[in-house]
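[step 3/7] fold_predict: job queued, chain A
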Amino acid sequence: MASVLLFASCEDKHAHVPHDHDGDGVADHGPGEHNAPVPHDHDGDGIPDHGPGEHHAPVPHDHDGDGVADHGPGAHHDHGADVHAKKIAGPNGGKIITAIEPHAEFYVTPEHKVRITFLDEQNTAIAVADQTVDVICGDRSNPTILSFAKDTDGNSLISDGTLPAGNKFPVILTFKTSPDAAPIRGKFALDLSDCPSCDYQEYACTCDHGHAH
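[step 4/7] structure written:
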């Protein structure tokens, strides 16, 4: 009986398909990809989480780190009228009221009357138009009520009476920019003491030492 010998070379015996990890004879991936990471795949799902160049790109004006711009370009310092504004006194040395437009200066005269002067953006007095103002101040149980009329200079309103006795008491102002306009109210603690750090009385103080104006 004839014998048939089958020979297998060493090369064939140990031959394997490169990158065939599941043994099905088909390469699972191409050469050079074995340990190649997926760029920008931070969660390991094989999909880039963002595009090239964005890895460390910050969101402009994102101050709270939430990924959303807190304000638009050019608005970096626009956080409200009084947040970062340097405190300044009015042209007469009084307190500037910013709750109304145009702004107004509340100034206590040497006679203890109140002078209201409306100001432009350069902190300069402008002519009074149709604005009116009333002031209630002093003791809550027996308040002093001041009415105002246009002064002879035409640039301010002067009270018809004087402030009550004392150096410190609450003041409530009611402005109307025209006879038909809605009233605008504001209040503050009037302190007529001299500030030890600047040239103004405490109610108009320009120092940054925590006064409530």
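[step 5/7] annotate
The radius of gyration is 39 Å.
Residues 3-14, 53-57, 61-85 have pLDDT under 50 and may be disordered.
exit 0
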